[in-house]
Automatic annotation (TrEMBL):
The lineage of its organism: Eukaryota, Metazoa, Ecdysozoa, Nematoda, Chromadorea. This is TSP1_spondin domain-containing protein. It comes from Angiostrongylus cantonensis (Rat lungworm). It comes from the Eukaryota. It is found in: Secreted. Coiled coil: none annotated. Its main location: secreted. Keywords: Disulfide bond, Repeat, Secreted, Signal.
Length: 255
């Protein structure tokens, strides 16, 4: 009689449990007996080595900080040896980054309070400033300016009428005045310019006397008497009342 076959043939070996380095593979067989009590094992294990595992190189040096001031980022990388970008990639990240902090960035201080108005009346300006700390390259202006308004400025009144000429005849002068007043009408000495103007003027035609005539004879033959002399106004357009002085001059004599 032939020997009964109790075991099936071995199945094919399984794939290696590791993709690299040392792994294991298995194969199985089946027992044909009803009680499943065949002599021997129904599986076998075998070591397998599909090839060396990929390994990381040493990390590169950290890169310089991504910013010249303040908080930035520094990075470093590493390469995978013995592997490819696929199923045999090295485990873990190929790059790392960390925060880095350089010198403090230039930074503006808070604005100071607005300064006083540049004028006490009318339209002026106000300024405020800030300071760049930790450097000199702060963006934006260091100074701000806004308009400001004081009270109403003192102003000149209209000129008064010209005064009369200072002389009745010949060259003279006349004046006119104005006043510096505030909004409420109070007088003040704060306006720019003069409060009085002067101009030349000519009076009416002046009286011009002739030379005196000779003294007359004494009006008495003896004793106390008097002598006279006369003159005339050469300008016929002037009345004698406008002439300064007298038409006749007297002097006492002892005749």
């Amino acid at each position: 009689l032939g020997v009964c076959q109790t075991w099936s043939d071995w199945c094919e070996w399984s794939t290696c449990s590791g993709s690299c380095g040392i792994g294991e593979r298995t194969r199985t067989r089946f027992c044909y007996l009803e009680n499943r009590r065949c002599e021997g094992k129904d599986f076998e294990v075998n070591a397998c080595n599909p090839g060396p595992c990929p390994e990381w190189e040493e990390w590169n040096e950290w890169s310089s900080c991504s910013t010249s001031c303040g908080v930035g980022v520094s990075r470093r990388r590493r390469s995978c040896l013995g592997g490819a970008l696929g199923n045999n990639m090295c485990l873990g990240p190929s790059s790392e980054q960390r925060f880095c902090e350089e010198a403090l960035c230039p930074l503006w201080t808070s604005w100071v309070e607005w300064g006083a108005c540049s004028v006490t009346c009318g339209v002026g300006t106000r300024h405020r400033y800030r300071t760049c700390q930790y450097g000199t390259d702060c963006p934006g202006p260091q100074k701000e300016t806004i308009p400001c308004y004081g009270s109403s400025c003192p102003a000149w009144t209209e000129w008064c009428e010209w005064s009369r000429c200072s002389v009745k005849c010949g060259p003279g002068q006349r004046t006119r005045t104005r006043e510096c007043v505030k909004a409420d009408g109070a007088r003040i000495h704060a306006c720019q310019g003069l409060s009085m103007e002067t101009t030349l003027c000519e009076g009416t035609v002046c009286c011009q006397w002739s030379d005196w005539c000779h003294w007359s004879m004494c009006d008495r033959e003896c004793g106390g008497g008097q002598s006279i002399r006369t003159r005339i106004c050469l300008n016929t357009q002037v009345q004698l009342s406008q002439c300064q002085g007298t038409l006749i001059s007297y002097k006492k004599l002892f005749c």
